[in-house]
Amino acid sequence: MKELPVYLNRTGRDVLVDGGDATGLGEVYLVGAGPGDPELLTLRAVRLLQQADVVVHDRLVSRAVLDLVSEDVERIFVGKQGFRDGHRQRRINDIMIEKARQGMRVARLKGGDPFVFGRGGEELEALANAGIRFQVVPGVTAATGCAAYAGIPLTHREHAQSVRFITAHTRRGRLDLGRQRLDVAGETLVLYMGLTHVDQLCSELQRLGQPETRPVAVVVQGTTGHQRVIEGTLATLPSRVAETTVGSPGLLIVGEVVRLRRRLAWFEGTGTGNAPFPTLVQALTGTPAGNKRVEVA
């Protein structure tokens, strides 16, 4: 396996290769996996993945990112689809705590950034309450990553001076954008986890002040070889999505900046999944995919 340099923090402690402590406890690395393209991972994220004893990952972590994990490392899939399986969060916390108490270095790998609609704070609270050490590695959140790969700048001096990130679902699993008006001039809206309710979202945005002619785009499987971008307005997007077979995850971008995609689009999916990145995987791991995988019931 190719070794990367070791980096020290300001105290001189090796924050990347330090594992268990004098008590025999391990440590949890809360790592942002980004939106899909493994080349968007930080160097620190790659190193921690390489030294982990076990990787606990979500459904939104791409195969190409998982392929960076050594083949002898156990992988535990804890994929949950938000409100459909909320009870799994407690089980995920228990797995991390149990593995760390066994002296293992646990990589908790989450799509995007763990602190942006990723429940990272909830998981760290559970670890802190259990006395487990942890580190956090930020990731490229879907909003910035997918927008960049779609050729849609979230801010622009002539079109948008602010941007707002919104999750389309509440803790109880219902579509709820609140009551605050969302028609702020010069603002871009980015809605996470809204692909399955595009029609309702577009209606709700109009109810909250957005004009039906407002440009909107949905980016599906952004930054990967399967990326697709569907454009329209709040009035036309639902029918365009319905006419197209799209998978998940999907991200909605609402605002005048969507018009800039016509000139700034630079990346389109190849239709080959994550095939564009085998060289990176081979260079960092020396092995192809095929790691041990365990699913949580």
Automatic annotation (TrEMBL):
InterPro entries linked: 4pyrrol_Mease (IPR000878), 4pyrrol_Methylase_sf (IPR035996), 4pyrrole_Mease_sub1 (IPR014777), 4pyrrole_Mease_sub2 (IPR014776), CobA/CysG_C (IPR006366), Siro_Cobalamin_biosynth (IPR050161), Uropor_MeTrfase_CS (IPR003043)
E.C. numbers: 2.1.1.107
Annotated SUPFAM superfamilies: Tetrapyrrole methylase
Tetrapyrrole methylase domain ranges (all copies): 28-237
Keyword Oxidoreductase: yes
Pfam families with a match to the protein in the record: TP_methylase
EC class name: transferase
Signal sequence range: none
GO biological-process terms attached to the record: cobalamin biosynthetic process; methylation; siroheme biosynthetic process
UniProt KW keywords: Cobalamin biosynthesis, Lyase, Methyltransferase, Multifunctional enzyme, Oxidoreductase, Porphyrin biosynthesis, S-adenosyl-L-methionine, Transferase
CDD domains: SUMT
GO function term, MF aspect, one: lyase activity
Pathway terms, separated by semicolons: Cofactor biosynthesis; adenosylcobalamin biosynthesis; precorrin-2 from uroporphyrinogen III: step 1/1; Porphyrin-containing compound metabolism; siroheme biosynthesis; precorrin-2 from uroporphyrinogen III: step 1/1
Family recorded in the similarity comment: Belongs to the precorrin methyltransferase family.
Name of the protein: uroporphyrinogen-III C-methyltransferase
Organism placement in taxonomy: Bacteria, Pseudomonadati, Pseudomonadota, Gammaproteobacteria, Chromatiales
